[in-house]
Write a sequence for this structure.
């Protein structure tokens, strides 16, 4: 009877941390997410301001102190996530686990390894902190919906991109033949570059057709560009509309693999087929 409470105490603490850090269906979990979103945005602002030389020179001490404050916060957060994760190795190697690590690791590297100047500019390590912005994606349900829609539409988008690639290659080669090196189309790759900038309606103007036939081809490419830009948007929008009629997503994650795309009616994890706890389904 005395050994059971001793084993239950750390397990209860771990479960409580898991609910606060990884879940968003409790008051504490929502508060934790909101505070962390604020910290992420503020830390990104510090990184941006630190890159402005006039501001950095005037407020160097303040920015330096804030950077270490945020680094300390992200270090504690990563340690807590690693502690309460059901599979620590899987979390550490996951996308969000790597992003959480990048959020604070460059600051330590730039401090403890100044000799990295001989291999790589330390500014690159410091600017890696901007990847903290990706931490926001783990707190936004809308991002999950959009990411799922993109993943479900990837085959259609790949087919569309392959068609676009064939068009720009054909049109670029045709422009190379029509215009030639004397008008700036010195090679097929350069002509394909022109076709891409024209079809995407960017039109840098560094290479322009001079012949009447070349202008006709360019006009055709511009008109095609208006249509092609709408295709991927329509594909993703259609998928999101279809998902709107499907069962709502459960805001909690699978305690076994940390998958966060569970439906309210799911009884088993979609990734590994593990039975979910009773509070994960009705």
């Amino acid at each position: 009877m005395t050994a059971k409470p001793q084993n239950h105490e750390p397990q209860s603490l771990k479960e409580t941390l898991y609910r606060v850090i990884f879940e968003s269906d409790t008051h504490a979990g929502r508060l934790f997410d909101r505070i962390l979103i604020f910290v992420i945005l503020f830390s990104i602002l510090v990184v941006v301001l630190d890159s402005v030389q006039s501001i950095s020179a005037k407020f160097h001490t303040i920015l330096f102190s804030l950077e270490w404050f945020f680094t300390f916060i992200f270090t504690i957060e990563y340690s807590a996530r690693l502690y309460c994760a059901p599979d620590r190795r899987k979390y550490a190697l996951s996308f969000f686990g790597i992003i959480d690590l990048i959020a604070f690791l460059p600051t330590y590297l730039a401090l403890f390894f100044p000799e990295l100047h001989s291999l790589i500019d330390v500014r690159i390590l410091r600017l890696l902190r901007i990847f903290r912005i990706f931490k926001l994606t783990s707190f936004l349900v809308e991002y999950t919906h959009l990411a799922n829609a993109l993943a479900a539409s990837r085959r259609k988008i790949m087919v569309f991109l392959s068609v676009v690639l064939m068009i720009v290659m054909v049109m670029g080669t045709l422009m190379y033949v029509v215009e030639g090196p004397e008008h700036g189309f010195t090679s097929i790759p350069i002509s394909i570059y022109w076709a891409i900038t024209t079809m995407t309606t960017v039109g840098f103007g560094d290479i322009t057709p001079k012949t009447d036939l070349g202008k006709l081809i360019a006009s055709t490419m511009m008109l095609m560009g208006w249509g092609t830009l709408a295709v991927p948007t329509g594909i993703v929008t259609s998928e999101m509309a279809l998902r709107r009629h499907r069962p709502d997503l459960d805001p909690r994650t699978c305690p076994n693999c940390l998958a966060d795309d569970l439906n309210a009616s799911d009884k088993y994890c979609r990734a590994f087929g593990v039975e979910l706890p009773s509070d994960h389904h009705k």
Notes: The mean pLDDT is 79. DSSP finds twelve helices and no strands in the chain. The two ends are 34 Å apart (CA to CA).
